[in-house]
Write a structure and sequence with these properties.
Largest sheet: 7 strands, parallel
Strand content: 5-15%
Bound molecules: NADP nicotinamide-adenine-dinucleotide phosphate, coenzyme A
Shape: globular
CATH superfamily: NAD(P)-binding Rossmann-like Domain
CATH topology: Rossmann fold
CATH class: Alpha Beta
Structural class: alpha/beta
Number of domains: 1
Radius of gyration: 18 Å
Order of helices and strands: EHEHEHEHEHEHHHEHH
Distance between the termini: 50 Å
């Protein structure tokens, strides 16, 4: 029988820090690492949600500790990373996936509404990576930004997310260059629509919208959180030791189908 032991996907003793790791796709990634022996640090705003995630991760075999921090608050993020470093040592894998979204046309969102999403998804992503650098294992760390198809395709009613995630992918590429000499790899995973997640609940709140969204995906179905986690395992394993600055869709082809299709599913027209 194949086990994680002695395979490229054995993360025993490795320290994995997940920003925005208390639910959904990011928690599934944390869980996949925990099941393969990693020690997990989880950070998000809600202390209650963080504690729930930590209980789940410990139940699946991983040592875990949670921190309450808003990625918009640089000092809070840096404090969480410093405490995590003290507890579990240098960070081997950093996953940065905190995000916010709502559906609105550009004229239906205030400047503050637009800025709120950019602050979380883009500036928050910068804060996490900038603050983490001092605590990353050098050489050897794998940094993964969680992007979205909106980074690639202009999507109706998603001006804020499109702008923020496109910026995030460019940050991935720039830091891959800047941090390459430290032996740190920086990549983006671009999940497509993933079933039973808050992201999809917001974009497709009715059964009709869900069906239209599934139809817009070339593989004809939603992805699973486990399928996104699998890519995080590969990117953080020796199998990807020469991969950096890559923006990798895990989306059933949805980014090829065009944002207009996804946008039509979201808006119904
Ligand atoms: P989710 O369950 O709502 O996860 C978002 C996470 O971010 C939560 O843990 C949330 O916890 C945290 N968070 C939100 N704002 C934060 C802030 N200001 N500071 C710190 N943490 C914050 O959503 P999801 O659908 O799984 O999405 C996860 C990631 O995948 C996001 O980056 C999203 O853009 C990306 N994505 C999702 C899909 C999809 O189909 N769902 C598709 C493409 C990309 P708190 O509320 O406790 O802060
Ligand atoms: N349409 C238009 N504007 C909206 C909106 C909507 N549906 N929802 C929020 N906004 C605006 C608010 O009106 C406010 O602007 P204003 O003060 O000028 O009116 C601004 O966005 C900030 O809202 P607020 O609720 O104060 O922000 P927050 O920091 O508490 O929450 C959100 C951030 C809005 C992104 C919130 O939905 C959130 O926390 N999301 C996290 C979970 C999530 O989105 N998961 C999916 C990830 S893909």
């Amino acid at each position: 029988m194949t086990t994680a032991q002695n395979t490229p996907f054995d993360f025993s003793g490795r320290h994995v820090f997940v920003a925005g790791g208390s639910s959904g796709i990011n928690l599934a990634i944390a869980d996949a690492f925990a099941r393969r022996g990693a020690r997990l640090s989880i950070a998000s705003r809600s202390a209650e949600r963080v504690e729930g995630a930590v209980r789940q991760l410990r139940g699946h075999g991983g040592d875990a500790k949670g921190y309450s921090a808003d990625v918009r608050d640089y000092d809070a993020v840096e404090g969480a990373l410093a405490q995590a470093h003290e507890r579990f040592g240098p960070v081997d894998v950093l996953v940065s996936g905190a995000a916010g979204n709502f559906v609105a046309p550009a004229l239906g969102m205030s400047s503050k509404g637009f800025r709120t999403v950019v602050d979380i998804d883009l500036i928050g992503g910068f804060n996490v990576l900038r603050a983490a650098h001092a605590f990353l294992r050098r050489p050897g760390a794998s940094v993964i930004n969680i992007s979205a198809p909106q980074a690639i395709n202009p999507t109706l009613y998603q001006a804020h997310v499109c702008a923020a995630k496109a910026g995030l992918d460019m940050l991935t590429r720039v830091l891959a260059i800047e941090w390459g000499s430290d032996g740190i790899r920086v990549n983006s995973i671009v999940p497509g629509p993933i079933g039973d997640t808050e992201g999809v609940r917001r974009l497709a709140p009715s059964p009709e919208a869900l069906a239209a969204m599934a139809q817009s995906i070339p593989l004809g179905r939603f992805g699973t959180t486990a399928e996104v986690a699998d890519m995080a395992m590969v990117l953080s394993s020796p199998m990807a030791s020469f991969v950096t600055g890559a923006v990798i869709p895990v989306d059933g082809g949805s980014s090829l189908a065009g944002g207009r299709n996804l946008g039509a599913a979201v808006t119904g027209h």
